[in-house]
Amino acid sequence: MEPHLIITDIDGTLAVDHQHVSPMTIAALNAAMDNGHQFFVATGRMYALAKIMADQVSDRAGVIGANGAVYDFAGERVHHLLGADALKAVNSVTTEHGLSAFYFSDDNVYYTQTPPAFVEAALRVFEPSGLTVGVKQVGNLTNLLKHEHEITNGIVISPRDAEGLQQSMADLQKLDLMHLSASNHDNMELIPRGIDKATAINELQQLTGIPAERTIVFGDGMNDIGMMKQAGVSVAMGNAVDAVKQVAKYETASNTEDGIAKFLNNYLQ
């Protein structure tokens, strides 16, 4: 069989509980790589948090992090940045609506104002034990902009103010300074303009020479729809939202039922 590009989202797809990959799924992905296929995780997580999940599968696994703003290829790391104008806009809009924004480099989290405890707790869910991510309060916009050369993406988490989150997204969409997405109903993901998981996959298809018809993508959330459209073989998890299932060409079992392994073991036979 000709080589395929296999790409999986992490949360709700590859991981069973945000921090662990099942033995069956690890075995299936390693068998695929043994047979010449290439595997990448693709996530909104910052690079360091994505890398530790990829390494659970294999040190051969590649990383597409920050919703496509950073990815691995041939031992190099490719970056796209949010930029100063986007950072200024997010700071202004979230301050107006009383929301907390977090900004990510490969291995640091930056924020301007101390977030509510429940927001910080929601962010910490994705930090595996044994990995220390730098979390730095910079205090104001001026200090935040000192890190514009390393900030690839960000997230606004608002579990208790859906209206403020929706209005913030509408305000930022009007400015058209970045790409906005969501992995859940209570967040807004901040991505460099013109960038998403799909653009990273397209770049990898060009670099590897593996076309869309031999690209397999697994996902469950709204921010996976773009990359599914970039793949000839798009697979929704059983736990995926309806919008993802409508776009996907196939559906498999849920993330807690080894959906990835079950699909690959059948499809790659």
Automatic annotation (TrEMBL):
What keywords tag this UniProt record? Hydrolase
| Keyword Protein biosynthesis attached | no
Q: Does the keyword Repressor apply?
A: no
The UniProt entry, under PROSITE patterns, shows: COF_2
GO MF entry, a single one: phosphatase activity
Provide one Gene Ontology cellular component.
cytosol
Q: Which domain of life is it from?
A: Bacteria
Name of the protein described by the UniProt record = HAD superfamily hydrolase
- Protein source organism: Lacticaseibacillus sharpeae JCM 1186 = DSM 20505
